[in-house]
Design brief:
single chain; 189 residues; alpha+beta; Nuclear Transport Factor 2, Chain: A; 6-stranded antiparallel β-sheet; 57% helix
Length: 189
């Protein structure tokens, strides 16, 4: 029995990057409550766990901070990582209702060195977006290291935002902002 479980895990890990994204999407859809029902705390935690398994938040954070990461103390890195991961998980559950009703077309993978890009077209509420997942094959399986939405890189977006905050408020300011959540006074587009 134990050997069979290990073989299933290894077989699942050897699939393509697109297979990993499809599996994540299927798991997320299965974890969502029926339409019209609110997401429970247990359901939210389950969804966050699914997202955490495939998204390499540490790689996203380190890429976004670039050389600044090396300049931080280990305590700052740990606290920043915790704040970022918490904020990332929370933001991922905010759009689940729209995502539930979306249609996803998976396009052919594109390999670039150790990274594989999985382009998709997502249609939600009558609007279409191009979302490309950038993945790296790691020992634990495929992990997302960037998400490009309509040609805008999440890493690049974080890099610009984090640099502005660190320049004005320092690393401690960035940690504080991530722990507080979105600014309620910020303009919504």
């Amino acid at each position: 029995m134990r050997t069979a479980v290990i073989l299933l895990l290894v077989a699942g890990a050897s699939g393509s990057a697109t297979d990993a994204i499809r599996q994540r999407d299927a798991e997320l859809r299965a974890a969502l409550p029926p339409d019209g029902q609110a997401l429970t705390e247990a359901g939210r935690k389950k969804i966050e766990g699914i997202v955490s398994r495939i998204v390499d938040t540490r790689a996203l954070l380190e890429s976004a901070l670039d050389r600044r990461w090396a300049q931080m103390t280990e305590s700052q890195r740990r606290r920043l990582r915790e704040a970022f991961e918490s904020r990332f998980r929370a933001s991922g559950t905010a759009q689940l209702d729209n995502w539930r009703k979306s249609k996803i077309d998976y396009l052919p993978e594109e390999r670039a060195g150790e990274l594989v890009r999985v382009p998709t077209r997502i249609e939600a509420q009558g609007e279409q977006s191009e979302v490309t997942y950038v993945l790296r094959d790691e020992a634990a399986g495929w992990r997302i290291v960037d998400i490009v939405v309509d040609q805008v890189s999440t890493v690049e977006n974080y890099r610009a935002s984090f640099a502005r905050i660190i320049n004005r408020e320092g690393v401690e300011g960035l940690i504080g902002r991530l722990n507080r959540g979105p600014d309620p006074k910020a303009k919504k587009e």
